[in-house]
Structures are given as C-alpha cells and as structure tokens.
Design a protein that fits this description.
Blueprint lengths: L4 H22 L13 H21 L16 H21 L16 H23 L8 H19 L10 E5 L5 E6 L9 E4 L7 E5 L1 H8 L9 E4 L1 H10 L3
Parallel strand pairs: 1-4
Antiparallel strand pairs: 1-2, 2-3, 4-5
Helix pairs in contact: 1-3, 1-4, 2-3, 2-4, 5-6
Length: 250
C-alpha cells in the first residue's frame, strides 16, 4: 500500500511549511504538549536533523546511514526556524531529483530504496506539524484521509515490527479499520518471530480481540500518541490496544 511519489512530495512540501509556520507562532521555548519534556526548539532540532539525515543518505547513496543530529552549535530561536525551512526545501529538491528505485540505507528491511525516504519524511513532517500546531495552540489542520490511511499502513508495517517492544506478549490480535477511506489491517502477535518480527501484519478485514474503527486521521494520530481514543469506536479488549500503542516506541 503506497501512494504516488508526487503525492508524498506535495505533502512533504506543505506539511514542512506548516510546521515551520506553527513553530514560529509558538516561539522557541513553548512546550510541545504531545511530546512531554520537549520545547519547540527540541522539536525543530529533531525535525531538521531528520531531514538532513534523509537528504544525505539519498544524495550520497549511503548504505550505512549517516549521523542524524544537528551540531550543538546549530542556530537557535528564529534562526532555527529558518534553518529548518532551508533544510526542508533542500530535502524536497533532493527527493524530487532522486531515482526512487536507487538502493540506499533505510531502517526497513522490506524497502532499501530512496522511495522509503520519500514516504517516510512526508509522514514525519505531518505528525510533527501536528505537534507544532499543538504547541502554538491553534486548530489542527486536517490530514487528507488517503494520506492518513497510508500513514497507518507505514506505522503498522514498518514501525510496529521494527520498534515495538514486547509485542509478541500483547495477549491478542488487533483489527484497525478506517471508516472514511480504504484501509483495514490485522495485527497478530508472532510468538516465533524473534526480536524484530514480533507481529504479523496483514491488510484484511478480519476479527481481532480488539477492533478500532474511525476516521483515518483519528486512527493515525491515536497510534502515534497524538490523540486520545474518544473519536474511535472500540470493540473488545480496549486495554490491548492501549498496550500496543504504548509498546511501539520509535
């Protein structure tokens, strides 16, 4: 499940600009409610470092990854917003010019191509734009349903298997179902999967021990810990879904 390359690049461009605007409105010292302990400065450093990380991997064709953090002497305050904007623009240019099929390092064994980073950075910018808007205290801009559904797919097929801890011991299966756009998944603990394959994720309509149904945006932001479950319909073992969300730490 994936979208056209141009869709990701369009979202990356818009979401990065919106993130920068919200960060500027909030101010560098504003707390980020969805990232406890972080200020807007922390958020911008993280986002800018990630953009530089992905850009350098794609530009150099690295097979080993590159450092992902900004230097300690990076600009602060308004200059950090400008640094983020410039880096986001550079990332878009690099990803637009890149051969999407080129072999590069990624953290997803299932996709070792530049296309991984095109998709990844678009979704990363979106979630952190939500963080910046929360810090600024402004209304959150909607996430396009098809794009949100694709973000759920990435979360379940890339992040849960790779970064989840203790998922094999969750105690049941989870069905995730978008109600406003196509998208259904079943997540089943894999008792024989080893450290990096603790769940099996399939794209299907099937009964789980807990089912979460709702708009793609609500599901995506709940999985990423940015929205509570109030907007979702939950059937079955609610605590199982809560354990799953808590276990996937990226």
């Amino acid at each position: 499940m994936s979208l056209e390359r141009t869709v990701y690049l369009d979202h990356l461009t818009r979401e990065s600009a919106a993130l920068a605007d919200a960060a500027a409105a909030a101010g560098p010292d504003a707390p980020v409610p969805s990232c406890p302990g972080w200020t807007v400065t922390d958020l911008l450093r993280h986002a800018a470092g990630g953009d530089t990380w992905a850009r350098l991997i794609v530009e150099t064709g690295s097979r080993e990854g590159v450092p992902a953090e900004l230097p300690d002497d990076a600009p602060t305050g308004d200059a950090l917003v400008a640094l983020y904007r410039d880096g986001a623009d550079a990332l878009v240019r690099t990803l637009t010019a890149a051969d999407a099929t080129a072999s590069v390092w990624t953290f997803a064994p299932s996709d070792r191509t530049a296309m991984f980073w095109i998709r990844r950075r678009a979704h990363e910018a979106t979630v952190h734009r939500v963080d910046a808007e929360a810090a600024a205290g402004v209304d959150l801009a909607a996430i396009e349903p098809a794009f949100a559904s694709d973000g759920i797919d990435e979360y379940l097929t890339v992040f849960a298997p790779r970064f989840g801890t203790g998922l094999a011991d969750l105690g049941g299966s989870i069905h995730v179902h978008c109600t406003d756009v196509e998208g259904e998944w079943l997540v089943v603990p894999n008792l024989d999967g080893g450290e990096r394959n603790q769940v099996v994720v399939t794209r299907e309509h099937a009964k789980g021990d807990v089912a979460a149904r709702g708009r793609a945006e609500d599901l995506l932001l709940h999985l990423w810990g940015r929205r509570d479950a109030a907007g979702l319909e939950l059937f079955g073992d609610d605590a199982l879904l809560a354990r799953f969300v808590a276990a996937v730490k990226a």
